[in-house]
Amino acid sequence: MTTDPMTTDPMTTDPTTLPTTARIPYGGDYNPEQWPDPVWDEDHRAFDLARIDTLTVGVFVWSLTQPAEEVYDLTVLERILDRAQAEGRQVCLATGTGAVPPWLAHRYPEVCRTDFEGRRHVYGQRHNACPSSPAYRRLAAALAGRVAERFADHPAVIAWHVNNEYGGACYCDLCAAEFRIWLRERYGTLDRLNDAWNAVFWSHRFTDWAEVVPPNALSEHWRGPDHTAFQGITLDYLRFTSDNLLRTFREEKDAIRQHSDLPVTTNFMGMYRPIDYHRWAEHLDLASWDNYPPDDRSASRMALTHDLMRGLKDGQPFWLMEQTPTVTASRDVNPVKRPGVMRLWSWQAVAHGADAVLFFQMRQSRGACEKYHGAVLDHAGRTDTRSFREVAALGAELEALGDRTLGARTPARVAVLFDWDSWWALEISDGPNRNLRYQRTVIDHHRALWEAGAQVDVVPVTADLTRYDVVVAPLLHMVKGDLAERLEAVAERGGTVVTTVLSGRVDEDDNAFLADVPGPLARLLGIRVDETDAQAPEVRNPVRLVVGDDELVTGSHTVFDLVLPQGAEVVGTYGADFYAGTAAVTRNRFGRGEAWYLGTCLEQDGLDLVLRHVLARHGLVGPYADAPGVEHAVREVDGRRYEFLLHHGDVRVEVDAHADGTDLLSGRRVVRGEVIALEPTDVVVLEVG
Ligand code: GLA
Ligand code: ZN
Predict the structure, then answer these.
(1) How confident is the prediction for the chain on average, in pLDDT?
(2) How does pLDDT run across 610-624, given as a tens digit for each residue?
(3) For 251-301, what is each residue's pLDDT tens digit?
């Protein structure tokens, strides 16, 4: 190693902040327990070459660290940690509870989940322990405590990694019992529960808590997890499942806290529907996530997901806990990352707030389902492969960058609201259109802002909105608490609010507002929706948008509100069907600001036009908005400003620098107005000034 990453005594780290590191931690999942000793030597030699200073250790070692219920054996972790320390490397140490050992399931069959169809599973796979199982909860927390007790003072350890990629659901009797307890806590009385679920519909009035059973294929569901007769109970089971898994995380975290104040995290999966990460966020010291985009055209989607993860802890930097250096293996088709792409996406993560760049994994698995999953070192352990060279080159860049960007914040004046409740409620709804997807819609809106070069925070509906000029709330289906008033306040003081079709429809219980649509948002938007039409995916209704001097005929699809302006100005009109010539998009002056309603799903060029106008009103269109494929992201810390230019396009572009600065990657001094040429996958990190 050329630098010593251990700059501080780990025990002095403030548990509410990120680990203190000398530079962006670089490395990732390391499973040397699967390899003989000589391979460990080879590993560390290669890590030196690639400037890898951080290893995530012990994620799946339960069957080694506790070979039987009565026997703990942490020697394998001790050897890995001691070696890491001797090599000058730091460790993010896992509790190892993401995959249960065979003996545990054999002795306590309750630990195996019951699935949506009601089938009790037997031992196999991972990430599938029943979160209500007393045996699982007791043994997972006990193991976390043992690991923390033993290694809390180990100088290599800088953070704790609890479990792995929490997810899924269980429908067993233990979960049913826990669900009833959760419901009693939420509702207090059966009257309140019956009211929340509108139980009088189809004769469902409950007279005893014991009558409540989990909603699945055997009970309320009629075609998979999204087709339910009672949205209320299904929505509550989603909330319960998220909370029930969270409880197991908290039990492990509490066990760690008995021994260590180091930051605790667990690796999230970005826009993962089954878990409400906003409800988890306050229980993590540090947010982290695993970035496995579905394809190589996902730049805007990754930007959104980074922004969402950064929003979990109120803008605090997060860790990129995993990404593949080369290929995945779990898909039907697994393309390699093209030259430059791993580097580009790593810098994109940093540009959006990542304070660590970590891979899954260091050495390619020998057998089982991940043997073709890419790794820093392949099966032969070569350091002269294309991908290793790229990993090493990035390591050198990150080392040279040092600690400059650590702790830096994104100066965003634009917020996108993201809400798991709205996501769930909308996608388990019968009507108006199953093809209306929450994630897709949020991606489309965020993309328009991203293409325009805006710095965007993606935040929960409970976030403080007073710091934003623009608040975009796609598919704000459920309006909870005082959100409507807080959105009104944004417009009142001169800001702009944008929301869409299917917003303002239901309350926190998923019951419709007994009022004109869009319910509590009607006053702000100055409209009333008379009807909502839905059409097959291929149907397009042309919408003519006239915004300022711009005019565009775009397409609209999926759902179509028939909007009756009640004070709002019409900026878009339908071109077809019995509502041709009527309002599709409106803008309402409200206080010193305005509120837009997009009454249908606009094609991307329509969204681009609307959202560029919105941004322009506040001077928030980015300096490189017209350079195709060029992303511009900003971070600031201690009076320093970093501007990242990331070229995701596939042709060379030239932009005029909008500020003086130094490119920290090339060392080149750039003067305002000077041309910066960007080849595909190029990255510039400009320290402005
Ligand atoms: C996930 C897991 C890892 C590994 C990778 C492979 O992110 O956390 O253990 O399975 O996927 O892509
Ligand atoms: Zn269960």
Answers:
(1) 96
(2) 999 999 999 999 999
(3) 999 999 999 999 999 999 999 999 999 999 999 999 999 999 988 789 999
Q: How far apart are CA 76 and CA 61, in angstroms?
A: 9
- Is there an atom of ligand 1 within 6 Å of 322 CB? yes
Instruction: Kindly give the distance from the C-alpha atom of residue 360 to the centroid of ligand 1, in angstroms, as a whole number.
Output: 7
Helix, strand and coil percent figures for the chain, each rounded to 5: 30, 25, 45
Identify whether the C-beta of residue 670 lies closer than 8 Å to the C-beta of residue 657: yes
| pLDDT for res 296 | 74
What token pair was written down for 559?
A: 């759902």
pLDDT attached to residue 15? 46
In this structure, the residue with its CA closest to atom 7 of ligand 1 is: 290
The single residue listed with the structure tokens 């400003």 is 641
pLDDT attached to residue 18: 77
Q: In whole angstroms, give the CA distance from residue 341 to residue 334.
A: 15
State the pLDDT at residue 525.
Answer: 99
Q: Spell out, as residue ranges, where the chain has pLDDT lower than 50.
A: 1-15
Q: Is the Cβ atom of 328 under 6 angstroms away from ligand 1?
A: yes
What residue has token string 């007279």? 207
585-615: b (≥16 Cβ within 10 Å) or e = bbbbebeebbbbbbbbbbbeebbbbbbbbbb
> Which pLDDT belongs to residue 1?
33
Q: Which helix (H) or strand (E) holds 82?
A: helix 75-86
Which pLDDT value is given to residue 8?
35
Question: Is 508 one of the annotated active-site residues of the chain?
Answer: no
Question: Of the listed 87, 110, 220, 322, which one is catalytic?
Answer: 322
Give the containing element (helix H, strand E) for 573: strand 569-574
* Protein residue whose Cα sits closest to atom 11 of ligand 1: 360
Characterize 511-540 residue by residue with b for buried, 16 or more Cβ atoms within 10 angstroms of its Cβ, and e for exposed: eebeeebbbbbbbbbbbbbeebbebeeeee
Question: What is the model's pLDDT at position 84?
Answer: 98
**Domains observed in the chain:** 26-110+121-167+258-401 (3.20.20.80), 414-617 (3.40.50.880), 630-688 (2.60.40.1180)
pTM (2 decimals)?
A: 0.97
Structure tokens at 643: 């501007």
Beta pairing, strands 26-30 & 54-57: parallel
Sign of CA dihedral 618, 624, 627, 633: negative
pLDDT of 17 reads 63
Positive or negative torsion for Cα 458, 462, 464, 468: positive
Nearest listed ligand to the Cα of residue 241: 2
